Amino acid sequence: MKYRKLELIFLVVSLIAVLFSIIVSVLQKAQFSEILGQALFVPVLFIALHYGRQPGFLAATGGALIYLIAKAQEFNSLSLSTVDGQFVIGRAALFGLIGIFGSELAIRTKYLIARLSGTEQIDDQTHLYSQNYLQKLITRAFHEYNRHARPFSILFITLDWPGLLDSATREKAVSQIATFIRSNVRLIDEVGYLSDNCFCMVLPDTTSLAAQLVFMRLEKAYKSDDSQLLTATLSERILSMPENEPEIKAMLPDRDIAKFIA
Fold first, then answer.
1. What domains appear along the chain, each with residue ranges and CATH number?
2. Is the whole model's pTM more than 0.90, yes or no?
3. Residue 60 scores a pLDDT above 70
4. DSSP code of residue 163
């Protein structure tokens, strides 16, 4: 299942639940702040599912502040020890749970579905997409470009190790770097691991310039990480459609190219 479909399912279910809750609140003549608080769950969840944990946390913080400001307008005084005060705290905390754990749940569900779909779709070392599955994702992105002119980029990140490093330490570091990359990209971006210490990311709706910005942001966050295992130097190579169409075509199986030409 494509992540876009999974994201859409989460959003539709949440939207239905929120709409039902809002209708009930309106019928019961609830305060405006409560209706607003319920409605804000949808954009917070969307940002968490679409952009990942950190943007989700920022959206949750913003949503909680908007709710608290609206709530404060309806009370001359509000004690945290009262039932109303505790309810407000609980509602604000719920924003945080949705913003942080919503994206984390989506990440785990995304790769779990891939693992359950076939043994060759997930790399055992990094728990990211395998080389074979990445080829399918690139084929799919190429197909969408030919049908709808949707640009995409492929970002290769190679690890350059300093000096002599034993294989066990490298394997442990590769796994940690895989977790780091997965946690610092949008959830719609597909991340996989190739052989020879190289990660591959398929970035939908991303130009070559935007892909370069993605790498620069990742590299900056990587260098600021204090973990002792993150000792490798990162280098990048970017292929984008339509600028690098010949190189991307060469990555696809001949039978898939024939489908596009037919």
1. 3-117 (no CATH), 131-261 (3.30.70.270)
2. no
3. yes
4. S
